[in-house]
Amino acid sequence: MDYLRYYLNCLLPLAAIAGFVLGGHWVWLGIGTLPLLILADALSPQDYAPRRIANGALADVVIYVQMLLVLGTFVAFAWRAHVGFDPALGPVLPWLASALALIWIGLVANVGAAHELMHRHNPLAAFIGKLGFAVIGAPNRDISHTVTHHLYFDTERDFDTAHRGESVYRFVPRCIWGNTRDEIEYERRRLAAQGHGLWHWKSQILWGLVLSAAMLAGMYWAGGLPALLVQAAAMVGGRILGEALNYLQHFGLLRVPGRPIEDRHTWNHLSAVTRILGLEITNHVEHHQDPDRPFYALTPRPQGPQMRNILLWGIAAFFPPIWTRLIQPRLKDWDLNHATAEEQALAREANRRAGWPDWLGESPASAEVARVA
């Protein structure tokens, strides 16, 4: 069962592919899995069981199957755009349904597998991972993720760590701009050490742009300007929503650079559905402690900070008052009961800048009441 459970992820792109192949009103099938998955995740119990997988090569098959189906979804759309949609659907709706399906599949069915491949050390896996991120407009995300985020998460230096009091609407552009700048600067330094400029043929930045341009050109060839615009929407929408999910992963958590990575330093999402959907990246802290540890070997840490259902939390993030009411009690508990003295000093300053209550400045008696509560 532990080998098979991850194949449930394949149902999402299969539904989208079927919708494009069948045509007509079936083109809504791709995005139609969204409410079903939100409901399934909301009703899903917490799952703290380790996976019993002895054959890593057999477990890895699902990653490649999943990526093949995700990329196949974009090919199926290109084919449908080429042969045409049912005229009865009108000039707009089928393209809208296609854009929503590609954004949804490019994000939820894709990112967990692409992220896993990003961390692998063989060139084919790394390229497929890069291709997976290219479909959501982030072909060089592997650079900033592995070079910046894994070194500096939970600190001011990391653009993937959302600050207390920062809305998702402020975080997403800051994250995209900061990580893009980091990617360019890292590649500039790497190539300069070899005596090359940024636009040398070995540049990952250059090849990332070529990959994205090739995808757009392929869609234009297949279905003209409307197909190109849908692909562009999939890239822009996928990147924005991808960073919005990224907003949840470290929101408000703090770490002193150079200190050991402990269970308290990441949010974990451990519902049964979320663990499958994210290919266990939701067992978050162990991934940071050992980025080379394969997905099936990551073990849940229920003692770490928890966000129960990632899809519902992701929706809440777009409503800042609701988000603040949800996240503040959890960060208050983190500050009072989990943070070290150094982290509490950072937290008190972060709360001041966010305009949040100074619960770390409460009297010892009131702090004790908060711990009991």
Overall description:
This protein has 373 residues and is an all-alpha fold. The protein contains 15 helices and no strands. Helix 1 packs parallel to helix 3 and helix 3 (56-83) crosses helix 9 (204-249). The relative contact order is 0.12. It has two domains: 5-174 and 208-318, no CATH class; 330-373, no CATH class.
- Radius of gyration equals 21 Å
Question: Structural class given helices, strands, pairing?
Answer: mainly alpha
* Estimated share of beta-strand residues: under 5%
Low-confidence stretches: 363-373
- For the residues shown, what is the average pLDDT? 92
How many beta-strand runs?
0
Helix content: 55-70%
